[in-house]
Specification:
Elements: H1 2-7, H2 11-20
């Protein structure tokens, strides 16, 4: 893995890991329920309700 390579002294891996370390705080470490795009959008204007 990238972390193992970085820990093993691979400078390129260490540099890359540093640039992406912010993902540890953004990406959940537990399974998430996926959604299809159609499930998260309104198909018709009437589905959105009154504005």
């Amino acid at each position: 893995s990238l972390s193992a390579a970085a820990d093993g002294g691979d400078l390129r891996a260490a540099y890359t890991r540093t640039g992406y370390r912010f993902l540890e705080g953004v990406v959940p470490d537990h399974p998430v329920q996926g959604r299809r795009r159609a499930q998260g959008t309104f198909a018709l204007r009437s589905d959105a309700g009154q504005h």
